[in-house]
Automatic annotation (TrEMBL):
Portion of the parent chain present: 1 to 180 of 1185
Taxonomic lineage of the native organism: Bacteria, Bacillati, Bacillota, Clostridia, Neomoorellales
Highest taxon listed in the record's lineage: Bacteria
UniProt protein name: Chromosome partition protein Smc
Role, per record: Required for chromosome condensation and partitioning.
Note on domains (UniProt): Contains large globular domains required for ATP hydrolysis at each terminus and a third globular domain forming a flexible hinge near the middle of the molecule. These domains are separated by coiled-coil structures.
Family to which this protein belongs: Belongs to the SMC family.
Binding residues annotated for ATP, in chain numbering: 32-39
Source organism of this protein record: Thermanaeromonas toyohensis ToBE
Subunit details: Homodimer.
Subcellular location per the Swiss-Prot or TrEMBL entry: Cytoplasm
Amino acid sequence: MLLKSLEIQGFKTFVDRIKLEFGPGITCIVGPNGSGKSNIVDAIAWVLGEQSARALRGSRMEDVIFAGSEKRRPVGLAEVTLVLDNTDGTLPLPYPEIAITRRLMRSGESEYKLNKIPCRLRDIQELLMDTGAGREKFSFIGQGRLEEILTAHPEERRLLLEEVAGITRSRWRKEQVLKR
Ligand code: ATP
Ligand code: MG
């Protein structure tokens, strides 16, 4: 599963529509402080279903909608579309490309779409389950989190790695069996 492109409009600093195309391999985003690098990561987390405004560095979900600047008036709607390459079939849908869209109106009304067809948040959450991009989001390592991992005790780091590798559940099961 690869990120192919990201379209952002009205989300945080991105008032006008922008489209980022990601090539194969590693993508780096560079720019001055406050230029919107982290906002791009927030847009990816948001379109994948993030429900915590705090995780998106705001206090209310409405904070993701462009709030205006010296030159531009605020807008009433944020929309992000992430296109994933699914030619390897990681996502259980029979399409080589999957576009996930999320919109939020200032009125609080929100909308999710899969390949342009309206769906529920649950459909997106279910689609991403067990891919590492879903609810637990180990695919996002924030600035503070990196330091936390590097300075953690070996035992704590091991727990984290086990969680990422998806073996926490089997370890827990094994412990239950040994207890008997
Ligand atoms: P750094 O290098 O410091 O990490 P960055 O490039 O990651 O910077 P971001 O955190 O992505 O920068 O962007 C921060 C900017 O986004 C701030 O100037 C903030 O005012 C602006 N911003 C955040 N939310 C909104 C919003 N809803 N409307 C307009 N601007 C916003
Ligand atoms: Mg940043």
